[in-house]
Specification:
This protein has about 130 residues and is of the alpha/beta class. It has three helices and seven strands; from the N terminus they run E-E-E-E-H-E-H-E-H-E.
């Protein structure tokens, strides 16, 4: 089982879907919030949105997310941990293009890292309607 103590800050980042229930907006429809977290500190480095029905954010959104996260330490990680079979094309391709090794990990092994962030998100946003 993975643990934050196994990593140094900025050594590995985790990408994951933050919400369990889609976020609904009146104008734009339903979305999933995709977050990028440092594995050692469990600090959320950035987030982006992907329309429900899309398997991952757009190429532009992925580049912006990585750039947003990079601003915290002025460098990219060595490794990107990706849960299970999620994010199969755009995100891993862009990470590898930027020199980041992509490692697939069963989502249950990431729950220690991402569980609290998901609970907090659900408490604040609940996945209900946002106007």
């Amino acid at each position: 089982m993975l643990h934050p103590e196994q990593f140094k800050v900025n050594e590995a980042w985790i990408v994951f879907k933050l919400n369990e229930v889609p976020i609904h907006t009146e104008r734009e429809g339903r979305f999933n919030c995709i977050a990028l977290m440092d594995a050692a500190s469990c600090f959320i480095l950035g987030n982006t949105f992907a329309p429900v029905g899309e398997t991952e954010p757009s190429k532009i959104a992925v580049r912006d997310l990585l750039e947003q996260a990079k601003t915290h330490k002025q460098q990219l990680p060595k490794t990107l941990l990706v849960p299970g079979a999620q994010f199969n094309s755009i995100l891993p391709a862009e990470a590898e293009r930027q020199g980041i090794a992509v490692v697939r990990v069963p989502e249950k092994e990431l729950l220690l890292f991402i569980g609290e962030a998901r609970m907090s998100f659900q408490t604040h946003f609940g996945g209900g309607s946002m106007q």
